[in-house]
Design goal:
nine-stranded mixed beta sheet, 20 strands, 26% strand, 8 helices, single chain, four-stranded antiparallel beta sheet, alpha+beta, elongated
Length: 425
């Protein structure tokens, strides 16, 4: 028994009216993975037998659907190509593979059935679209070593994932409960969700091994999908004929101890800046003065108590401020040294430069006086021309020799000292 193609594509209800019995898929929503065919008898036709697909019946297959003709629980023929198909009890299985090419033949050979008189035939459909919006949430926190914080942290993840059926025959044989005519993904998700969460923990740990900072995990859905494919798809494909398509993490939360560690580390990083640290010291002193002024025993008593405390802790606060100020001065000095090492007249102003006349510019010439932008190692000739080479491009004079200091402390520009005659080292 098998099916033959009646017409390649559905072209309207008028075509279906040519046959007395037409099978259409039952309601198939976004979360439906499996449903039965519904017999649509035409006119006064009453010849069909319940539980039997009559010879000559027409089966309608839509896009992204896989139709199976089943006899006694065994698949006798199938198609993954949309169109109208006629049941022919005298034909062998046709096996219209459609998008799956020849990949389904091996699965069919394992569960094939034929050669017997059909007794309980049914039509079933499997949804080939991506099944989206399957919710997940970690029951227990997942450990995550973060190299940035240098600590073992714990997180919880919630979101959605999607699957796609890649081998519908294997999916029917292994995943669909027996004697079911309609299956939603939620009906069979409990077992798969446990496996999914186990693979999710493995994949999140792989992100940790790759050095991804824990706060970046919510934006790593694509990487997680790749890791999940490596971890889970091989088993799910071989066992059940389905695979993970995408993983979307809606929220990441940390347990209480991890939150404390993260906040402590972030606060320490901020206080590593002497400017921020000095502001913290000054703010603490200001809050002390404010608290003293609102003392319930009177402001004078508060300030007297604060004076005693300042005598005990003032030295420590003063030392902290001295250290902060010293570090700020070192930073300012470093910035000044960097600016001093730039060519004269070439200090940057944003993306531009400052001319000797004080004008800020972005082009090659000063918008105020017309002088060209100085270059590194540039020099100004006696004629006023700015040059970068060894000779003036205007009058041809050579660049002045760099000055040097002799052992006798005389500053020279020639090859010999003008005071003692010693050669330039």
């Amino acid at each position: 028994m098998g099916i033959i193609k009646a017409v390649a594509q559905a072209i309207g209800g008028a075509l279906a009216d040519q046959w007395l019995e037409v099978y259409e898929p039952d309601d198939m929503g976004d979360m439906t993975v499996f449903t039965s065919g519904v017999l649509m008898r035409q006119g006064q036709n009453k010849k069909g037998t319940e539980g039997t697909v009559s010879n000559g019946s027409i089966i309608h297959v839509y896009d992204n659907q896989f139709m199976m003709l089943v006899d006694g629980g065994k698949v006798v023929d199938y198609t993954a190509e949309p169109g109208y198909y006629k049941v022919d009890n005298s034909s062998l299985p046709s096996m219209f593979n459609g998008q799956f090419k020849d990949a389904l033949k091996e699965s069919f050979n394992r569960i094939k059935f034929g050669g017997q008189t059909p007794t309980a035939q049914k039509v079933f459909y499997i949804n080939l679209q991506e099944i989206k919006g399957i919710k997940f949430g970690t029951r227990n926190p997942i450990n995550y070593f973060d190299a940035f914080y240098n600590a073992e942290l714990f997180l919880r993840a919630h979101g959605n994932y999607s699957i796609k059926i890649t081998d519908p025959l294997r999916f029917y044989a292994e995943a669909i409960p027996r004697n079911k005519d309609h299956v939603e993904i939620g009906d069979i998700n409990e077992q798969y969700l446990s496996e999914f969460l186990e693979a999710l923990q493995t994949s999140i740990n792989q992100l940790s091994a790759d050095g991804v900072r824990i706060s970046y995990v919510p934006s790593k859905g694509r990487e997680l999908s790749k890791y999940m494919a490596q971890t889970l798809d091989e088993d799910w494909n071989q066992m059940r004929g389905m695979e993970i398509q995408s993983v979307g993490i809606a929220s990441i939360s940390y347990d209480e101890e991890s939150t404390k560690l993260i906040n402590m580390r972030n606060q320490g990083a901020m206080l590593g800046d002497p400017t921020v640290r000095e502001g913290y010291v000054q703010g603490a002193m200001a809050r002390g003065l404010e608290a003293a002024g609102s003392n319930a025993n009177g402001a004078m008593a508060g300030f007297m108590g604060m004076g005693v405390g300042m005598q005990a802790g003032g030295a420590m606060m003063g030392n902290a401020s001295q250290v902060n100020l010293a570090q700020m001065q070192m930073q300012q000095q470093a910035a000044a040294n960097q600016a001093a090492n730039q060519p004269a007249g070439a200090q940057t102003a944003g993306n531009g430069w400052v001319c000797e006349c004080g004008a800020n510019n972005t082009g090659k010439f000063c918008s105020e006086c017309g002088k060209p932008q100085p270059q590194a190692n540039s020099w100004t000739c006696e004629c006023g021309n700015v040059n970068a080479g060894k000779f003036c491009s205007e009058c041809g004079k050579p660049a002045p020799a760099a000055e040097w200091t002799c052992e006798c402390q005389t500053v020279n520009s020639g090859k010999f000292c003008s005071n003692c005659g010693k050669a330039r080292p």
